[in-house]
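subagent[fold] <- orchestrator: predict structure for attached chain, return C-alpha cells only, no commentary.
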Amino acid sequence: MATSTLTARLVNPLVNGLLAIAPLANWAKHRARTMMIERAESLGVPWRQIVADLRTQDLDADLAKVKNPDLIYPDYYLTSFHAYAEGNLGWEPAIEVEVAAYAVHSRIFAPEKTNQPSREGDAMLRASFHQVLEKLEKPQDILDIGCSVGMSTFALQDIYPEAEITGLDLSPYFLAIAARNSEKVPLRQKISWIHAAAENMPLADQSFDLISLSLVCHELPQAATHQILQECRRLLRPNGHLAIMDMNPQSQIYAKMPPYILTLLKSTEPYLDQYFGLDMAKLMGKSGFRHISITCNTPRHRVILAQVSE
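subagent[fold] -> orchestrator:
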C-alpha cells in the first residue's frame, strides 16, 4: 500500500469525528485502559498489586531529587496521553507505564493464527532494536531521550555496560520511578537522570556518540520532532549516530486495523496523525544527518539509523 494511501487510511475522518465528541473520546480511553489491564493480568503481570505496592512508597521524596522546578513544559505536552487526563505529569501514569508496556507489546511477535500474547514481547521488541545497533562501534557516551521510567535506558546499559548513559525525560514523575529503580542495581547507579525538554537540552555540544529515541516520536507533533532532531545533531560528536525506534507507518498491521481498534489507539495518542504523516527520513536529512537507513525490526516497528557528518 502506498504511503499516501496508508496515511489517508489512518487519518480516518470517521474515527477523528468520533474522537471529537468528548463522551465518546472518554469512553474510548476508558475502554483502551481496561483492555490493557485485563491483558496484563492475563499474562501473569499483577497490574493492580504492583500499582498498590508502589503507592505505599515515599515517591514524593524521589520526585524532589529529580524535578527541575524552573522547567516550562511545551504546550503540546500538557494534554491527555494514554488515557490519563493528566497525560504524563502524574503518579498514576508513572506507576503504570511499565506494566502497560508488557501488555501493549505482548502481541508484537504473536503468531498470526493464534494471536497469543506473551509477556516477553516487550523484551523482544527492545532486543530487536539493539540488534540493529550491533553494526555500530561501541559508544562511550549515550543519551536516551524520552527515557520514561528507564526501561529503554536499562536495556541500553545491559548491552553497553561500560558506557556513560544519560536518561532524559519531560516527566519528573517518570524520572522519579527510573531513579528509584536504578538504585536497586549497583551498575545502574551510573546513569544520570535529567528533567528537561528534548527541544532545548541543557547539555554541551558534541557530548554523545549515540542518541536513542525509543517509542518517542509518535507522541510528538511534527514541529517538536524537527526541533529535537536539530538538538540531536548539536549533541552528537562527529560520526556519531542517532537511532530512532518507533511504530512503522508503512506496516500492514495498521493498514488492516479495524476502525474500532484504530479508534481506541488514537484516543490514547493525540499526535498519531501527525506522526504517520511525517517523512522522518526526509526530515532527518534536512536536519543534517546522512547515511540514513530504515530497518523493519518487528511486524509493526522500524529502526531509523543515521549519522552526523565529520
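orchestrator: received. Logging for downstream: Residues 18 and 24 are 6 Å apart (CA to CA). Residues 22-42 form the longest helix (21 residues).
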